[in-house]
Specification:
By secondary structure, the chain is α/β, with parallel strands linked by helices. The chain has 14 helices and 12 strands. The chain has a 5-stranded mixed β-sheet with strand order 8-7-9-6-10. Strands 4-11-5-12 form a 4-stranded antiparallel β-sheet.
Amino acid sequence: MAGGLVVEERYTHDLVKRVVKLTCSRFATSTIVGLIITATSSLGAELTIPVFPFPGLGAFLPPVIDAKGFGEANDLDITWKTEPERVYRTNFAAGTNKIGGSATLLADVAKLNELGVETVFLFNIFDFWGTVVVSADSGISRLQDLQGTKLAASLPTTNYALFRYAAKMDGLDLSKVAIQASPVLGLIPIILAGRVDGVQVWEPAHSQLVHGNDNFRALDVVGVIARHTGQSKIPYVGIAAHKSWVEENEDLIPKLFATYAAAATFINDNPEEAAEIISEAAGGRLTRDVLAGLIRSGRMGMDVYWVSDALAAAKATFEAAMSIEYLNQMPPDSIVYGGE
């Protein structure tokens, strides 16, 4: 229910505040650098970049970057460090990791800056895509129809936050929906077991649910947001870094952008080969067929761009977050790289 949502968000907010306070108390005696630039080797500058494990979106491009040599082509020698979401977010907020490859514009940049941690969104990798999946025979065809139903969702996520905005704009009162909190990996089993009427998910969970069957229907969330913001882009997941790192490593940022842009182009142009690379990196948990179909569908929202070139879209996303009280105020343009 709505009360559960408040508890989850308060927990996340309080956790970050405790990390920020701890970081400040240690700053005078310790400098912990999560992104390691040790030297310039024959392969280029050595970077260690933390990312979420699969099925997190931030895990999709690294194996392609490695397999196709896009880092080396841009004079970068990148090591990927997989961290569970809570560990990743805590380490990034504390400054243990100065850079992150699974950053969200809202949680890891806008929210942290509100709490006094100066981080910068370097560039976008994935625009927002999310949905609510319901049974095909449920009679539910739009968000308003969810009133009086039972919905499972991963409450602390920014994907759910943007869904709340879409629900509000589409006239759905979430206090009249029975919200059941679930970890991300529990969303697919809970609807397959028939314990809820719908689940709020994103990719690749949506594709895993609907691949090869006609049992489910996906409700339009992205279209609702686009209509109400007037923006076709919704910057969402990308690369973020602490301001101190940005100031010390300006020369690496265009190289990192070019590396990710090359990987995204390859994935879109070669869905079958890319799916094989990603599936193998995921240990087979994401099948090649599902991944290839997902890539061809465009639902991943993969779009590598400088958000400074789409400031209107970023501001519309911030306004959406403010309208549901995820953010308290409009962030400055400077939290986007090149946005000054």
